Amino acid sequence: MGTKTDRRDYRATVRAVAEAYGRDPGFIIPMLQDLQTDLGYVPPEAAKEMAELLHVPLTQIYSVATFYKSFSLVPRGKHIITICMGTVCYLKGGREISALIQSRLGVGPGNTTADRLFTYQPVNCLGACALAPVMVIDDQYFDKVKLGHVPDILETYAKKDERDRDRD
Amino acid sequence: MELTVDGVTVQAYAGETVLAVARRAGAEIPALCSHVAVAPYGACRLCMVEVKRNGRSRMVASCSYPAEDGLTVLTHSERVQRARRGVVELLMAQAPDSKELRALGASMGVDESRFPTIGPAEGKCILCGLCVSVCRDVIHASSVSFANRGVDRALTTPFLEPSEECIGCGACAAVCPVGAIEIRVSGDEIEIAPFGNRVRLARCAECGTPIGSVPLGERVQRELGDRSTHTVGLCIDCKQRQAGARAWKVGRLRPASRAPRLSPTARS
Amino acid sequence: MSVTEIATKKVTCAADLERVRAESSLRASVETVSVAVCTSTGCGAKGAERVFAALEEALRGLPAEAREVTLKRTGCHGFCERGPIVVVQPGDIFYQNVREEDVPEIVRETVLNGRVVESLLYEDSETGRRCVSSTEIPFYRKQRRIVLEHHGLIDPTSIDDYIAVGGYRGLTKALTEMTPEQVIAEVELSGLRGRGGGGFPTGRKWRSCAQAAGELRYVICNGDEGDPGAFMDRSIMEANPYGVIEGMTIGAYAIGASEAFIYVRNEYPLAVVRLQQAIENAREWGLLGENILGTGFSLDIRINRGGGAFVCGESTALMASLQGEPGEPRAKYVHTVESGLHGRPTCLNNVETWVNVPTIVTRGGEWFASIGTERSKGTKVFSLVGNVCNTGLVEVPMGMTLREIVYDIGGGVPEGKALKAVQTGGPSGGCIPEKLLDSPVDFDQLSELGSMMGSGGLIVMDEDTCMVNVARYFVDFLREESCGKCTACREGVAQMSHILNRICAGEGREGDVELLLDLCEIAEEAALCALGTTVPNPVRSTIKHFGEEYDEHIRKKHCSAGQCRGLFEYRIVADTCTGCGLCRKACPQDAISGERKKPHVIDQAKCVQCGACLEVCSFSAIAKV
Fold first, then answer.
1. ipTM above 0.90, yes or no
2. How far is B110 from chain A (nearest CA, A)?
3. Are C602 and C592 in contact, with CB atoms under 8 Å apart?
């Protein structure tokens, strides 16, 4: 999906999202989350549309969108790789897994690979500590992840993407 | 109500902060993020003081702590000075180019910070938030705000684009305690650095001297309505000349009074 | 009430509820077999949904003359490491580590013939016995499950189940037999203290809020459980959402609020779904909304979500977030019970605190106060995780010692390793060394030890844990999560993080420890909120109890626990190495060489210390030196 530069293109989406919460500015965070679920990220032009619709200053939307780590203002990858960086996951290998993913994909936290396949997003504790270390790719949970398996898991997604592209 | 500040009894009334009361009592308390025009924010942490009540002693930010009857306040105890010096050291490391911070540090006996500058060292901004508050709560423009959080916290316009909301009034520059904001005139525009906001420069209708910004003039006009006819659009001298001529006409000539200038750089 | 309202509500008075309860209990007769599958996040991650689907299909294919079988989804038992967990009644048969392939056997043996499948039972490692019911399992035996009582029994989506086990008795009693003042008095009598970490007396908070000036007031449930290693609240919200709602409704009645919010962190999507469903069901049943149980009391609850910020667990930051703003805390010199959300009196409590409320109302504050220690009443749910045999959620009376929890319930440290420390209270807490393990767990005791109760995370750390790395982890965490508003925390924590990272990289200097302690003092004295003022805890407690590790890192540039990269070496023990070559193949840097069946060697120059070799070696021939 390309980034639209005319914010009116986002009007319908933003309106639908805002209406679901009664246009109550107290629900800006869930609104932005729903927007991100719809569009893959929070386009600046959509944020401007939202500010106007809710009658709040644009600075408020911008501050919120940059303060909370779950939002991305740039398009994200096809697959979001989340590594839990909670204490137990960290001590049981999470740090090494995180380092491996960053070096293999060549990206830092919150960033997306050049081919737009993966976004790496570390998260502070998913609450599944008994299964440490935990990795989540999109909605798929991987528990007790072994360092050695990580390259293979990444390969699976890369290969699947290749197949999908060949098909299209 | 009555408080004791550094051993001196002071009267205070409801709604006052300990900072205001203590200063009235003569205490010198630095408070960079505090300003009479806006509500207390409590960011810089320089105004920390020790308060005692019912035998319990704690450190509080005097800019935000409401005065209470019977409160004992210590503004320069050893404990307070240690904390204050520590905070100024952290600020000096954060904003190494700030002369104001260095002077403040020196006044506390801190010539150099023990801490290295580890952040982006953008020079002067100490993230006190005064520009944000004044723009949002006094000017009602909300042109700038905080972005990100933690060590990445920055003071910017939305999406780092010049803000359409800015009216070029210069209030942000006026309240900044470290001179990190500059108003520049270039050609027909006023630019607010470092935000990159640009507004049209307004010039005196009579003599052409720069007098402020067009949007600000329009705002003043809107808010004053009919009363503004002889006020907006003229530089101070021309305004006074016109006012004098009118007063002469109606026989009520009075010595000229010094009206506040619209913009500090208007005469450049 | 309009005619349509009366027509659509299922319960309009207390008698209605009792009738529903009686009818529900009748349904659970001995003739019925029930199979309960936990499908919460933990078991879900291990494939519980597939097990559920397989069971569903298998049961559909049963002959018509077979006994009636109920299949239900339940919430978290707390023993997540052993998931997926399936419990079969009658007999309270507790199956663990259940896979899809096990389903035919479960149906054939247990469902149809009442026989136990031994291999799926928990094996007590000490006695070698197989435990049939959860009550026999050491992990559960010493627990006292009051908050977690219904976990694993009730279907979290079913309000019938909740009512059947006695749910909403508390609300009925409060609304029809007690005044708001009496409810507050009961909670005060109980001695309940906030379970989110602050430990503030709940009754006192309610009273202050009820007395505050203003007509509009709010009740908030803090579901922003951010402490890494803690998942009690997640479990409760997923397994017993009605318990949370009932507690909040009672609280709202007590303080006079008609609007409430549950703030759930973004990372708990299932909890949001469960709570949302529970709210809708409760509204449908007339247990939420206008004129609850015909008493004239009305309450509505809305769910709002976090955006990924630990600091939003702090009450004023949470309220800012609820106002659609960044989660920046503000000074609490004026308490939130007087001026909170939108400047109005607000009563904010943690999930676990709310769930305790209905029980306190039905069984009485005195009963609650009979459990626990003198100043810490009731039970506490802890997440016992880390280097411990039985990982999961445990609920114990306040006052039980750490040793009992770790050894009697947790089964001790795996692989025969020595216990080094137990970390409590999350990033705001500290590390308690082995020698202090006989300390009772309660609010004040833990604070005295330089730690704190926090929300209930108990992280067990074995001898291979580097305590400097632990301090570095927590400080890095706080640096990431600091809101950045105040100088003391934003700059102070960043400086601490810088120093600790230098130390862990072998660049520590004389004077670093002193600098760290000075920064701790600045943060404690001058920070705006508890995130900043408690950052000294992990640093000071590790320096105090494990100072020799700091010395070793700084002076000898060595990490004896083998965790700080570059400060130790991976070495193959020649005597033990069988030359199988697995490590050579696993090494991504080709740093290992050796002939088949001959001891291999690691080239230290090429080694990047990723640990892949250690992971694959099955002869324990690789050591960290």
1. yes
2. 33
3. yes
